[in-house]
Amino acid sequence: MAASPRMRNALTLFSSADDVLCHRVRLVLAAKGVTYDLITVDPKDPPEDLIDLNPYHSVPTLVERDLVLYAASVVTEYLDERYPHPPLMPVDPLSRARLRLAMLRLEHDWVPEVRAIQTGTKANADAARKRLKELVATSVPLFKAYKFFLNPEMSLADCAMAPIIWRLESLGVPLPKDGKAIEDYGNRIFRNPGFTRSLTPQERNLRELPA
Strand ranges (DSSP E) for the chain? Predict the structure, then answer.
């Protein structure tokens, strides 16, 4: 089924109310200042529109006219190219490749632990919490190296990392004793009005915004 007339005339994002990958896309849209229609869905009970548009029935799913994109990595890179200001990837190929690899690591290593804590059994959640705590601890030097994640300017990698850092407290994952660099990093991003705009009401309730 083709996108509805309303979707063909506006950028539309299918998103869950609380999901790190959906938040990643909303953060890119907020950073770009792009106006869009947000359709909040329950991933366990996707609406017919989403079922017809996306063979995986997954979120995030972006619709623009006859274009339908899914998978957060695909959607965010498209948005960065479609709306080039401000740019969210460095110019040189080496830096771009490094950030893409970092985002892949986040998707493969960090995001599954977040989801296991949110939706798994108590035993699975406890194990995932331990693994995520270890991932956070080993990443401390990366946050000390630059003002933003692996880059002197905000990038797509921050849009992938910040939603995880935002959720750590609610997931029961404390920062390590030497984690002030992570706390400072989070506060820099969380104070940005674009980050506030990216939050759903459910995500806003996960923790307090820094003063």
Answer: 12-15, 37-40, 61-64, 67-70
141-191 pLDDT, tens per residue? 999 999 999 999 999 999 999 999 999 999 999 999 999 999 999 999 999
Strands of the sheet with 61-64, listed across from one edge: 37-40, 12-15, 61-64, 67-70
Burial class (CB in 10 A: 0-12, 13-18, 19+), 98: middle
- Alpha-carbon span 101 to 121, nearest angstrom: 30
196 φ/ψ sector (left φ>0, alpha ψ -120 to 50, else beta): alpha
Contact 107, 76 (CB under 8 A): no
Q: What is the DSSP letter of 2?
A: P
Residue 196: how many CB atoms within 10 A of its CB?
A: 12
Closest CA to 148 of 207, 109, 102: 102
Angle 118-122-124 from CA coordinates, rounded to 5°: 75
| 1: confidence class by pLDDT, cuts 50, 70, 90 | very low
Whether the pLDDT of residue 8 is over 60: the answer is: no
